[in-house]
Records
---
Amino acid sequence: MASLGNPKKTIEILNKYSFVFQKKFGQNFLIDNHVLEKIVRAAEITKDDFVLEIGPGIGTLTQFLCENAREVMAIEIDKKLIPILEETLAGYDNVRVLNEDILKVDITSIVEKYNNNKPIKVVANLPYYITTPIIMDLFEKHIPLSRVTIMIQKEVAVRIQAGPGSKDYGALSLAVQYYAEPYIAANVPPNCFMPRPKVGSAVINLTPYENPPYHVENERLLFSLIRASFNQRRKTLVNGINNYEGLSLSKDDIIDALNALGIANDIRGEALTLEQFIAISNRLSLVNPSAAND
């Protein structure tokens, strides 16, 4: 089967199956071979790798993955794409297609069954509307991952990679950076997709920490503090935490923790590093171990 990474081939296969794009699934298929090569290069896929692909579409990127990986498992939610994938991937014996919703799939058992519990690589061209839930689901379930290489909305990629003090820095930056090191590998303009999205995209690499560089007493408390401090962005950290319903901490406790760590009482959350949030969280967990109740 010829590569699908060009508009003519994509239109041909879509017409053959009278395929109609589903807005609810956020379908935008890649039609640029250079971008496909960049994704595979960024993911550093080798013949030792088991790759989980989320949302293969008509199999454009899947073909490239099959050429480079030991084995590919492609999870596709749209059952109308299954017959197309059967045709476009017919030439490969190292791929399985699963017609499921990725958020309902037990990825841990897939890793156990097909990769002996060794870390896998995840590659995806993610629909914009569900990007964050998918990323967080992969990390929060502590699935063994060696790398996550995903195409997402450029604005979200910038937010994920942002550091303290920038307007893009927020709860998402901290949540992802807690689990992995982000790096934007390529920017991708709308004309590389069919249909064209209204915004630019980016390929971002997330490399999970083998050994996290910090110790956290209470993850739930840490993430509640992060949410509280960005919930009302213009408020100081003390007021943000104090006003947040999911936390039972007194203003004095918060001020004492900041004083002990040498952090100004009028600081805003957007100025704090992840390490500072962890230090504050660890300090407060000694004062009140059950402070997080959301």
Note: The beta strands are 29-30, 50-54, 71-75, 95-98, 120-125, 145-153, 180-188, 193-194, 201-208.
---
Amino acid sequence: MIINDEPARTIGILKKYNLMPRKKFGQNFLIDSHVIGKIIDAAEIREDDCVLEIGPGIGTMTRHLCDRAARVIAVEIDRDLVKILKEDILRDKDNLSIINEDILKVDVDELVKTENGGRRIKVVANLPYYITTPIIMGLFEKHVPMESLTLMVQKEVASRMCASPGTKDYGALTVAVSYYSECYLAANVPCNCFMPRPDVMSAVVRLKVLEDPPVRVNDPDSMFAIVKAAFGQRRKTLQNALINAQGISCTKEEVANALESMGLSPLARGEVLSLAQFAKISDILGK
């Protein structure tokens, strides 16, 4: 039987250092040992792995990562927490590097070269919900060498990542995630697993990074411009969305002809197109 002593530990640390979770950093500390175990298991951490943890907080998950991995790099924006982690909570972890920085400003590619010789890392994070998408897309678009990302995110975001075409959750994030990775929903996490409790449910998602995209497209940037336009105004047909979008030069007739060649209705909306179909229409219009 697993005893969940994390709530008492978290309260003890907060009292000891007179800390309050900071809303501006989106701090909601995970206090459930069972969920921590699910995250570690989903990430498939091996003894030769190098792990990048984004937002270690008070080191709840960091301790377990250090016990399982060869090396852990923890990036934390809160300088007060960094001081406590280094001087007390995690001072005995000799396979840990703690960096006081905003992850959105870190050159992660350079960090991986320095800390792991450019070899692929595994990312584990309990992400602040308001910057989840920028962090994920930043790592993907900069082609950081990664095996996987195992993330605690808002359940609504997890649903969007793993959605299927034609569903209400399917959108630009879904298409981007499916271009770079395979998405797996590992666990749903209720609000009472955090301190303080967030207002929304959470979920653990594992994104297995693909070495090569599942589709071939002549110009990925053009494809993603089309994807962004398609979901920018979901109620519009794809025709109207594209001809009114900045940075896309095509006529209504050209879009209609492209859709017809793909066997799609001229009234089709972006939400019905798969990743492969977005790649195809991008190639057709690009000609």
Note: Residues 22 and 56 are 14 Å apart (CA to CA).
---
Amino acid sequence: MTDFGPLWDVVFLVVAALLPALIYLAWVRSGERSSAGPWSPLLGAFFLGALGATFAAALIEGALLAGGTAFSQAYPAPEFTFLNGTSKLGALFLVLVLAPVVEEGLKAWGTTSYKDQMRTVADGPVFGAGVGLGFGFFETFLYGFGAYLTGGLAAGLVLIFVRSLSSVLLHGSSTALFGFGYARKRFGAPGSPEASHFAGAVGLHASFNALASLPVLFVLAGLGNAYAGALSLLGLGLAILLAFSAIEYVRSLVLRGSYAGAGPINARYRPPRAATSPTARGR
């Protein structure tokens, strides 16, 4: 705790988690070269992700995990072990399958809630990033607050710093990827790009979680845990690299949507008519 008391400690934790997420959001939004939309609906999307999707995900995942654990204990067959949340295999099922599907589904719902605010394809990944970064901010604050309760302010701030370089970016990038596909479909792209981009968001999320779970994967593969510390550092480094690569790609999608020409990528765009001289018009 600080000399100011526990209330100020919590304020420090909130600010430490909030500022990086808002900076990332401003950076993604700056990719809208033509005309960035107003901040008010974007901040609404941010806090919908923070206070709506986060709590809903916790409730749904908690209920599914409890139900799966109870089922696997009532019917203790090997093929149901992955449903037991108290086992290593169950923990992996949670982070590699359950959490990516549930969380990306809820963040996608949050993104589509702002469909009427999307004026161009570029708005899709921007609003997706808003919802995802809001989710990442509040989740990171909760993890940091848990570390604060057990290890003090320094422990909470360190965890928030690490997650701000990794998990926060991941949540923003994965939902922005869905938002790009959703906006393409909304503005006339053929096929079902939102479905393929949602699958990409889930895959990105699961890949990130797999990197963060390298030690557990090695144990389940029978390779032992002698290198657990080194594997944890390697997994964290690769996860951070993936998160930064993903957010760079997201910003390229915003630029691509901003400069999209006529056609299915942005059905509302109309190229300017060629100027004609009075002589030419009179012919």
Note: The chain has one domain: 6-260.
---
Amino acid sequence: MSVPIRPLHPVFAGEISGIDCRKPLRADEVAAIEAGMNHYAVLVFRDQNLTDQEQIAFTRHFGELENYNTAGHVRKREDQRLGSGIADFSNLDKNGEIMSGDDRVWFFKLGDRLWHSDSSFRPIPAKYSLLSARVLPSWGANTEFADMRAAYDALDERTKAEVEELICEHSLIYSREAIGFTDLTPEEIAAFRPVRQRLVRTHPASGRKSLFLSSHAGAIVGWTIPEARMFLRDLTERATAPMFVYSHAWRPHDLVMWDNRSTMHRARRFDRAEIRDVRRTTLAGDAPTVQQEALPPTQPAPMRNAAAHIAQ
């Protein structure tokens, strides 16, 4: 089946039509959407007035929902507003009221405004994420996406060789530390223990290489922390240049689906006195980018430049 997709950006991202996400999909429709994701990496479905259960059912056409025993947030289970299988990315508390500006959950959520890839801090990072817009503020709140495939393709050959075998450490501790949020309990610190991910990954369906960057990445194995963070910051700046970025201006009942194996994204500022109710489902990833148990413990490296490190 051919499903119409209108490009939204010269490099990636498309608006798909002819699909009702509230209904079960035929096998050919699933295949067409998967093909669209492999090409565009971000797909926008307009006018999808979904319930939580309909969003979950639609998501399951493309794999299994992500399910981890350890927390990926500081919001406690008893304070959650929504049921299992769907994540609350609103600015609402468990009673449906706008969070206080002093709420530590709100402070933690501000880290979503940094460039990141969902669940890169997990041993097996996420496949697709699907975000449904239920209630939107009157201004702001765009979500920006960056194509990490195109960013990799644009690297010079020396930098491609430099990054090819690098392993990064990812943790929610790193991304929240970047915005000044360090108020973590011992239990949260244990849950957010760093995991290792390849800096260059290959998409299992398209075969395209991409940069696996994220604000959760705060170290490179074998490098000093200052050198690693400056190198990752430089790569992120290059990879999020305007030519690689699509900014999605939300409309009510938009459903946006993106491939975390090919993109980064970030939320943008809005009036926190207004409601932003958006809900996310996330698909489990395919496999670890590296085998966690096979890697030696991280050892601090002597100060040296990146080129010398790679040459050894």
Note: The chain has one domain: 5-311.
